[in-house]
Design goal:
mainly alpha; 62% helix; 81 residues; 2 strands
Length: 81
């Protein structure tokens, strides 16, 4: 069984249609925030923080690899206190 996910392009970012519809129709109305301004701001935030996020994820992968190697090289058993 496969689930089909439909994405739309808004302000240069791809967003799942259901999330987009929820934001536009349910979350944003009554807040005074224009949907176009919201998505423009979100796109700017993604552009600003995506490189830092990628670097942090890469560092996390390196640390996890080191942890995995340590556990494979050492006889480590979790003991109940």
């Amino acid at each position: 069984m496969s689930i089909s996910t439909h994405y739309i392009d808004v302000a240069g970012i791809k967003i799942e249609k259901g999330l987009h519809d929820f934001l536009v129709n349910d979350a944003l109305p009554g807040t005074g925030i224009d949907a176009a301004a919201f998505f423009d701001s979100m796109a700017k935030l993604f552009a600003e923080f995506a490189p830092k996020n990628r670097a942090l994820l890469q560092k996390r992968a390196q640390l996890q690899h080191q942890i995995d190697e340590w556990h494979q090289s050492n006889d480590y058993t979790v003991r109940k206190l």
